[in-house]
Write a structure and sequence with these properties.
By secondary structure, this protein is α/β, with parallel strands linked by helices. Helix content is 40%, strand content 13%. The chain contains 16 helices and 11 strands. Helix 4 packs across helix 6, helix 12 packs antiparallel against helix 13 and helix 13 runs antiparallel to helix 14. The structure holds flavin mononucleotide (FMN) and iron/sulfur cluster. The site of iron/sulfur cluster has 14 residues, from helix 13 and helix 15.
Length: 460
């Protein structure tokens, strides 16, 4: 257990020749030898699970898309990385974009996809450069055959990374999640969606409407695919835990001596990863560790939890995208809750009224409590909106609000009592750790995020 290199080489892979020299291309060759069904069977045997947050098995996803019918299927790489406290996909793309494109080429072969896309934020300058150069090199070398690899630059919004919103952005629209999942209503689908107006038919479309099943996978998930196929399922399963084989690329930010990204075998205790970054700082103790803004915090007594989907779930939390935000004993958890709730409120798109109204209602109540203006009505409002915020939701964002804020309330009741009595003694003020970069161990957070308004404009 501990550090292990699969997708995050210590020395960046600078060129296609470098990638071929360390075994690049072998995963694609193996997929060609195996054919689609056996490739999926190998990925299932390996137990590779999605690293975008939910841990969904890639074999099941690809099987579902492949069997969903239709003449047109697509594969998409989700490189929109917007989870606060997470910087692993950009680090992987900087270190080795070739493995991700090879993973997409294998997806295309296996799903018999007509086209593939990599969607990342327009602001991800270095990653866009590396991906664009790598695609050009691989196309010239004939490594992606006739496959068209589209690179889509999208907006800053958190929802861009939500898979149904990601497809909207690839189609040229705003990041507003559609109703149905990508394997049911895929890219450029012409099938009507729950009575919504259908997309314009594709050029040359002659038959009935089509749903174009689409597989959306995270950067880290796709990066693993060539390695799994080249080295075999048994090798992959020899790493990690039975339910979460392989490695996981972790980010650490917050109350630590350094911020950074590291790849470790699954099953490594969270504490070991925190130690690598000097968290907590000398003389301080950990109060809470959040894995993004989706799950319940882990507390000081849970730091030995092994990094795996099943163990984090058993601890009452979730591994998410393994972006860890550390809060030490100076942190006021009311302040943390109010800042992160505001993030989710601001980023909610408002298509589902309980989500926008609920995240707003929760944020207002938390702001009042944090500012010492909290009353019984604030608490009633909190518990009302926490109950209904996810009613009729198109996407998972309001469930994140429910899980995150509900669990902070349950785990740190004393902080709320202190605020209601006007006695908070913890000086630390929270920010949204939306990472623009990590430079020599120093995190660079987006200063604009704290000025973002709920209509996605910014305070001057
Ligand atoms: C609000 C929201 C934001 C998300 N942001 C990202 C993201 O930035 N990157 C990502 O890979 N997945 C993100 N996801 C998860 C995706 O919807 C999707 O589950 C994932 O890309 C699937 O890939 P995987 O199966 O390889 O994990 C987000 C989900 C939600 C609800
Ligand atoms: S649940 Fe919230 S964020 Fe998701 S689509 Fe509805 S309003 Fe938008």
């Amino acid at each position: 257990m501990g550090r292990f290199e699969i997708v995050l080489p210590e020395k960046p892979i600078a060129s296609l020749d470098d990638w071929l020299a360390v075994g690049g291309g072998q995963g694609l060759t193996r997929a060609k030898e195996l054919g689609p069904e056996a490739t999926i069977a190998e990925l299932e045997r390996a137990g590779l699970r999605g690293r975008g947050g939910a841990g969904f098995p890639i074999g099941t996803k690809w099987k579902t898309v492949r069997s969903a019918g239709g003449r047109h299927r697509y594969a998409v790489c989700n490189a929109a990385e917007g989870e606060p406290g997470t910087f692993k996909d950009r680090t992987i793309l900087r270190a080795n974009p070739y493995q991700v494109i090879e993973g997409l080429a294998i997806a295309a072969l296996t799903l018999e996809a007509v086209e593939v896309f990599i969607a990342l934020k327009a602001s991800f300058g270095p990653e866009r450069e590396r991906v664009t150069a790598a695609v050009t090199e691989m196309e010239r070398a004939g490594l992606v055959g006739d496959l068209s690899v589209g690179i889509v630059a999208g907006p800053e919004e958190y929802l861009f990374g939500e898979e149904k919103a990601l497809l909207e952005v690839i189609e040229g629209n705003d990041p507003l999640p559609r109703w149905l999942p990508p394997y049911v209503h895929g890219l450029f689908a012409t099938a009507p969606q729950l009575g919504w107006q259908a997309h314009e038919p594709e050029a040359g479309h002659t038959r009935g409407h089509e749903s174009n099943p689409t597989a959306v996978n995270n950067v880290e998930t796709l990066a693993n695919v060539p390695h799994v196929l080249a080295n075999g399922a048994d090798w992959y399963r020899s790493l990690g835990t039975p339910e979460t084989p392989g490695t996981v690329v972790c980010t650490v930010v917050g109350d630590a001596e350094r911020a950074g990204v590291v790849e470790v075998t699954c099953g490594t205790p969270l504490r070991d990863v925190l130690d690598m970054f000097g968290a907590p700082r000398p003389g301080r103790a950990v109060r809470a560790v959040l894995s993004g803004v989706t799950n319940a915090p882990l507390t000081a007594g849970q730091l030995d939890t092994p990094l795996a989907f099943e163990t984090f779930a058993a601890a009452g939390s979730g591994l998410g995208a393994a972006g860890f935000i550390v809060y030490d004993d100076t942190a006021c958890m009311v302040d943390v809750a109010s800042v992160l709730s505001r993030f989710l409120y601001v980023e909610s798109c408002g298509q589902c009224p309980p989500c926008k109204l609920g995240t707003g209602g929760i944020t207002n109540a938390l702001d009042d409590i944090a500012a010492g203006r909290g009353t019984d009505e604030s608490l009633e409002s909190l518990s009302h909106w926490l109950r209904v915020v996810a009613d009729g939701n198109r996407c998972f964002l309001p469930v994140e609000e429910q899980q995150l804020i509900g669990s902070i309330l349950r785990t740190f009741p004393d902080d709320f009592d202190a605020h209601l009595q006007g006695e908070c003694t913890r000086p630390h003020r929270a920010v949204v750790p939306k990472l623009l970069d990590i430079v020599d161990g120093a995190p660079v957070f987006d200063p604009r995020q704290m000025r973002k308004r709920p209509d996605w404009t910014y305070d001057p």
